[in-house]
Amino acid sequence: MDPMDIVWELPPQNFVKINVHAAYRADTLPNGNNSGIGVVIRNHEGNIIRMITGTIKGLTRENNQLWAMLKALQRVCIENLTHYILETDDRNMINIIDHYMEGGVGDQFELAHQIIHIIKDQRFVSDFELVDSNRNILATYLARNGGETRDRLYVVTEPFGRVQEIQNFDLGLAPLEQPFWEDEDDYHEELDDADDYEELDDARSYDE
């Protein structure tokens, strides 16, 4: 099967699907970043509800992975998204959470348990899936773009850069003419001052 035949799929009716990606690179970009976070939430018709793009500076690879998941789950609580499916192509992200859910200890204990607290919240019906990277393209774009062009995290409601193109590809409406990871220039589109962008507080935590 052609890898590009593996594409994003709509969630069931009354569910939203949350795609999450944490980008990390060994070297430092000219803007001082070496990581990015990307989250996209879509409803059962494929419409984008919210996106998160940007960076939290100074994180390790593992902490960046956990912050990506935590920011996604915090949106679940803020938006009261009672039925959701969370997808990521990051096996290590899932392994870290599994480690702490099984009683493991480590440097990410406090951060991981904020995530677990939301996962176990009985107000929500949820599922977590490890998917092929071709089912997580938009979240990956948001993470890489966020690391390369932002200085913090933003909540975004309107398409920017190549978001609409990737969204159309995910919905089967148009081909992806050029994979975004081969088109470096398209990463560097700055956010403007429109009301569609909400700056996120990196330290925001979830309280029941």
From TrEMBL:
Q: Which organism is it from?
A: Heracleum sosnowskyi
* Region called Disordered, residue ranges: 184-208
Q: Which residues form the RNase H type-1 domain?
A: 31-145
Q: Where is the composition biased (Acidic residues)?
A: 184-201
Q: GO: which molecular function terms? A: nucleic acid binding; RNA-DNA hybrid ribonuclease activity
The identity of this protein, by name, is: RNase H type-1 domain-containing protein
**What is one Pfam family matched by this protein?**
RVT_3
